[in-house]
Amino acid sequence: MSVTMKLEGFAELEKELEKISNSAGKGALRRGARKAAQPMADDMASRASRDQGDLADSFAVSTQLSPRQRRAHRKTTQDDKASVELFIGAGPLPQAHLEEFGSIHNAPHPMVRPAWDGGREALLNRLKSELWAEIQKTVRRAEARAAKRARG
Question: Which Pfam families does the protein's record reference (predicted)?
Answer without folding.
Answer: HK97-gp10_like
